[in-house]
Amino acid sequence: MNARSTLFRKVLVANRGEIACRIIRTCRRLGLPTVAVCSEADIGSLHAQSADEAVVIGGPRATDSYLNIASVIDAAVATGADAIHPGYGFLSENAAFAEACASTGITFIGPGVEALRAMSYKGAARQIARGCGVPILPGYDGPAEDDTILAAEAARIGFPLLIKAVAGGGGKGMRRVDASAQFTRSLAAVRREATSSFGDDRVLLERFVVDPRHIEVQILSDGQGRTLHLFERDCSIQRKHQKVIEETPAPGMTADMRRAMAGAAIRLAEHVGYRGAGTVEFVVDASDGLRQDRFYFLEMNTRLQVEHPVTEMVTGLDIVEWQLRIAAGEALPFVQDDIACSGHAIEARLCAEDPSRMFLPSPGLLQIFKLGSSNREIRIESGMRAGDTVTPYYDSLLAKVVVRGADRAAAITALAQRLSEMEVSGIKSNLALLRRILGHQAFADGQVDTKFIERHADVLLGPSA
Amino acid sequence: MSDTKVLSPLKAMVWKIEVEIGQAVDEHDDLVILESMKTEIPVQAPAGGIIAEILVKEGDSVEEEQPIAILRSAP
Q: Helix H segments across A104-173?
């Protein structure tokens, strides 16, 4: 191995916090010089200090710094970086940013602009998925807007279903209908709300899956004809649509179900000419166990995911390394059968929030922050240290704790053990919630779905003992 | 008449002001939407009344317990 990599001259990491630190770590292992960017609020932060160089790119607000395309590109040009890794969030799925990189002669470490754009509109992504035989939720998104036709479609889809404004978003213009008798009244209500909020009263209908599981497939494509899957992740334990615990393999996963889900994910990726690492997310109706005819396309994330480390723990692959190699033009040198899933990995997200006050964010000074160290079976991913201030400007993620065990029970035991040793003070965190989830019998039994935290709220969210 | 200070529940940024001075509001109406850690946090009227003062503007940073509006209600 050469000490200096030939992949790129220098990589700028257009992100902050734990993910910036994690990307810099792989770059360093590969002999790639790195540039960090930071906002004025992040001067002196761990990610800025971890890179070979750091550039202050603007004010504390993300729109003035991490989301400012011109500032990020300027920092790359000024430092001579020839590649940008966007991490997750911020500019990672921004087609205009990918284009700005290309026009400046900088490699954007991610998919091509067209694939990125194709997956960025949910309605369009649903149609692309259907076009290549990826299951989507039964629904109606045709041109008819006549009440009688829609009522007939609703009866065909079955109840409960969702009426969604086609122009909707952010939870607005959406209504659950449990029986046909309510349909006409609910349709009128959604149309009123859609007209006043979006100036567009068109709707689509979609079956509503009660208490689904969320299972996603990690894929890796070299853009040269080889697309592989790196198994699935179960991300069903959520609060307010935010993932809290992720694991792989998914509890109860069968070889047939995995083949069906991974096959669908690969088909979609190939169909849009995907290149790099990506994740295809599915909603799974597991009311009758995991069944091959009960999973439905939700969306594709065209970037690195927060929870990618669980996949790395069981496959031994460094996904960031392969993002870099693929972006530099390398072909994948291994085939599907070379990738094995060894053991079981679980990630817990430690966040600055107060579960007893409806997950109210909790900025402030981190007085005590003891997470323990990483080892072969435990990864601690954090961009924070004791004495750092958690600001209100960015997300609430303090750290990810990722463990691998020989099997699921061993992984739960190891993660519970580490969580019990951790100490956070100065701000409120969800540490007690994480401990209670890991200690809950329903979790041990693999009884996970997106309603888990709400269903067990009395045990999980009460005041700390 | 009694004046109530409506306080910010946390350190945050003022994202949107939903009311005007002199406006009548009901209990639980949203007065101001704060933003902290990518989360929107509505600050609601603790009771019905009239907005007597708005003490912040959009884009401001506020501290925990900082007064953000004054609500005048009938005794």
A: 113-120, 122-131, 147-157
- 3 state SS of A240: coil
What pLDDT is attached to residue A172? 67
Comparison of pLDDT for A239 and A462, the residue scoring more? A239
Mutate to test the interface with A, among B39, B62, B63 (most CBs of A within 10 A): B39
Q: Look at A396 and B39 and tell me if their CB atoms are within 8 Å.
A: yes
Q: Touching check for B66 and chain A: CB below 8 Å?
A: no
From CA A99, how far away is CA A11, in angstroms rounded?
17
- CB distance from B42 to chain A under 8 Å? no
Is B40 in the A-facing interface, judged by CB distances under 8 Å?
no
What pLDDT is attached to residue A1? 44
Residue B61 DSSP code: E
- The CA distances from residue B68 to A80, B9, B26, B47, B62, in Å, are 46, 10, 17, 15, 8
Tell me the C-alpha distance between A404 and A325, whole Å. 26
Q: Determine whether the interchain pair B10/A353 forms a contact, defined as Cβ–Cβ distance below 8 Å.
A: no
Mean predicted lDDT score pLDDT of chain A:
94
**If you average pLDDT over residues A237-252, what whole number do you get?**
94
Concerning whether A126 is annotated as a catalytic residue, the answer is no
Phi-psi label, residue B37: left if phi above 0, alpha if psi -120 to 50, beta otherwise = left
For residue B41, which residues of chain A lie inside 8 Å, CB to CB? 360-361
Residue B1: which residues within 8 A CB-CB, separation 6 or more?
Answer: B72, B73, B74, B75
Is the pLDDT score of A194 beyond 90? no
Res A171: pLDDT: 59
Distances (CA, A) of A464 to A22, A245, A352, A413: 32, 20, 15, 21
| A353: contact with B, CB 8 A cutoff | yes
| pLDDT tens digits along A356-387 | 999 999 999 999 999 999 999 999 999 999 99
pLDDT at A465: 45
